# Entry
Amino acid sequence: MNKIDKKEYEKRLNKITEIFEELVVHADEQATYRCPYKNRFDHCTAKFGCRNQRKIDEGTGLLCVGDDKLDYRNAWETDESDTQLSTQNTTNGTISCDGNVYHLSPGKTVFDYADDLVVQVPTSCFRTGQCHECIVEILQGMENLRPPNEAEAFLQDNYRLACQSLVVAINEHIEFVPLRRTPRILTHTNTEHISADKETTFTPDPTVTHHDGIVYCNNEPIDRFRGHIYGLAIDLGTTTVVVNLVDLENGQTVSESAFENPQRFGGSDIMHRISYDGKYEGELRKSLIAALNSQIMDMCDRYDFVRQEIYEIVVAGNTTMRDIFYRQDVQSIGQKPYKSLIEHEYLDGVRSTTSLIEKSRRLGIRSNPKAMVYSLPLIASHVGADVAADLVTIEMQSVDKIVMLVDVGTNTEVVVGNADRMVAASCPAGPAFEGRGIEYGMPAYPGAIESVKWDNGKITYQTIEDEKPQGLCGSGLISLLAELLRHNQMTPKGVFAERKQRVIPLLPEHGITFSRDDASNLAQAKAANYCGQFIVLRHFGCTPHDINRLYLAGGFANYVNITDAIDIGFLAPVPEDRIIKVGNAALAGAKAVLLSKEKRTQIEKFVKKIEHIELETTADFFDVFVDGCQFKPMPKDF
# Structure
C-alpha cells in the first residue's frame, strides 16, 4: 500500500477548497442578480406574473428573459421604515371599485388591489402586460398612477392595464371598474304572441349530427362522438354580448351567459370603434375573443364537458361588430356609403351572399378544431346580421299585414313592411340612453334607477335589485323625462320650469342631479330614433295607425315603459295594444338558424328583398331631426 504524501494531499485539498470557494462566490453573485425562480434552462418556475416572462413557442411553461443584471435582494428584504410608512398611510389613501374600498400601500398595482377587493379582472399572460385583457377604466385618480408604459400604448382616455398601473401616490383616492362586467342583460325572447296562430312544434335540423359514434357536419365525418353535440348562438352587440349554449340534438338551451362587450376602451359607439380599429388593428377583436373564450371555459367547468364538444357557432351582430369579429377591415363602414367590404364584394358580384363562415380555429375560438362559425347575412350598410336574426324570430317571411320592427340600441334599426315589401334604416342613436354623456347616467347595473314618479314635487323611484340608487339607466331616463313633462317641470325643448335653473336636484340625499346638458344629450339621441321611425314609415307610405304589430327588440326596449316612450317621442304612437316586446330577438334568431338548415336558407334569400334607405340623404332630414329633438309625441298622421 502506497504511503500518502501529506504535502501533495494538502496541496490537492487546498485546490478543492479554492474551487468550492469560487463556486460559493459565484452562487452568491447569481443569487444577487439572477432571479431565484429562473432555472438552469432559463425557464420561469414562479407561480405569479412577472414582466420578464415570455411564452414558449413550443411546449408548456414560460421563458425568463431577464438579463441577470437586476439586484433582486431588495425584493425579499423588508425595511422597517417602509413598514412604518405603509402603516402610517393606510388611513389616508383608498382605492375603490363598485362601492368596495381598500386602503392604499406602496408598491402595488391596480390588479393587486382588484385581488384585495375580490374584483375579477381577466388575464392570460400572468400579469405581464402582453395579453391586454386586464383593461380597467380609471374613474378617479388617474394622476395617482404611474404614467402609461409601452404595453399600454393602445389605450386612450382613462383606460389602463390593471397589471401595469402602479399606484405611486398612496395618500389620495383612486376609483376603477373592470371593462368586463355583467349588467342586467336580456337573454330571453317573448315569442308567444308571434307564433300564437302558427304551428309551434319544432324539430331540430342542424348541420351537425351524429350516428354510429361519429359526428358529421353536412354529412362529412369530423369527429368521434364524445357524449354531446353542442352549438353556440351569440348576440354580438356594441354594448353587450349574450351567449347561449345549445344542445343540437334536442334544441334546448343548456346555458345562458352575458357580459359587457369589453371593447369599450375603443369607444362607446360604432364610429369610434371603427376609428380605433384603424389605428390599433386587432386590439378590439383580441379583447372580445378573450372574453368569449373565458365564457366558454366557464361553461365547460359548470356543465362538465370539453370544448371539443362545441361543433358549430352562429353569430348575430351589427355590421361593424361582426366584421371585426371575423378579422375584416371595417374602415369602409365608417365612410360614405357606409358599406362593409363584404357588402361591396356582394354588390360587385364577387360574392353571392353577405353571410360569412369561417373555421373557429382560425378565429381563435375555443371549440372543436373543425367547428364552423356562421354569421347571418347583412341587410345593408349599418343594418346588419342582428336585424336579419330579428326577422327570423318574428317570422317576417310569412307576414301579410304591415308590421314594424324597432331594435333599440347604440344603433337603432327600423324595419317596416311585410313579406312582399320591406324598408329598413339604421339610426345612430349613440350611447346616451346607456349612460354615456349623462352625469348620473349608467348602464343597467344593480342600483340603477329604472323608473321614476313625480309625487307632489318629490321624486319616487325604483332601482334594479332594490339597491341604493347610484344613477339612472335608460328606462329610468325615459321615465324621468316623461314625468318632468307631465308635471310641467320641463318644456318639450328641455327648459326647466324655473327658466334660469340649469340643474334639478333629483335625489339630494344621494347626490343625484339632472341638468340641462343631460336633457340636451338625450334629446339628440332621442331624435335619431325619432327620425328613423318617422322617415321609414313615411317612405313605406303608412302611418303609425296602419301598423298591425310593432315589435320592440333588444334588452333596452324590453324594460322601457311604452307610454313614457311614446309621450316623449322615443317610439312611434302605435296603439299600445299592438306593441309587443319580443326581448332578445337577435339571440333567438341566431339559435333558430343554428338549429335549422331551412331557416338559414330562407333568411339568405329573404334579406335580398329588403329596400334600404340612408336617413341623411332624405331631403328634409335636418327638419325632421330638429323636430325630433323636442320631447313631444310623433304625429299620428303624416
Q: What stands out?
A: Residues 6-33 form the longest helix (28 residues).
